Amino acid sequence: MTEIERIEHARWALERNIGWIVQAEVKVAVVISLNIAMVGAMAASYTTTTNKTPEATVLTLFFGLVVLVAFFCSVMVVKPRLEGPVSSYIFFGKIVAKDRVMFAEDFAKAGAIEFLRDLTDQLHRNAEIACEKHEWVEKATLWSLCAGAIWVPVIVFLTRS
Known about the structure:
This protein has one domain (3-159). 83% of the residues lie in helices and 0% in strands. It has helices at residues 3-48, 54-78, 92-95, 100-109, 112-159.
């Protein structure tokens, strides 16, 4: 495999990793939407009912705590990951750390090996980010399912006459 082929392969793999990062954020948007819907229905049911039994109140509070954990996990998915390599021709944080002229000169001097090394550093870092975000999506989903399991009986308690 030539250096150019390696660069193209690393670029392709980096783009796939960035796609996986985006997928995690799309998935958590669904989780957040479902949680907001449950919280809205819970708030509407709780504020309009005259049947606020102690069980319903305790379960409502428990639901609130569990859904807060789910929201926290969701925030951890969309939290920007700004840690990057020491130097990079790709990562925006490292590009703007140099002045425009210095960056342009360094970029013009860089050879295929430097670009390949930068791409593989970015590839590895973005793979770490993708894994971390998907782990948080999994946690957010599990906590949301737990919240849903609490939400159903609370709604039943609150809406029965």
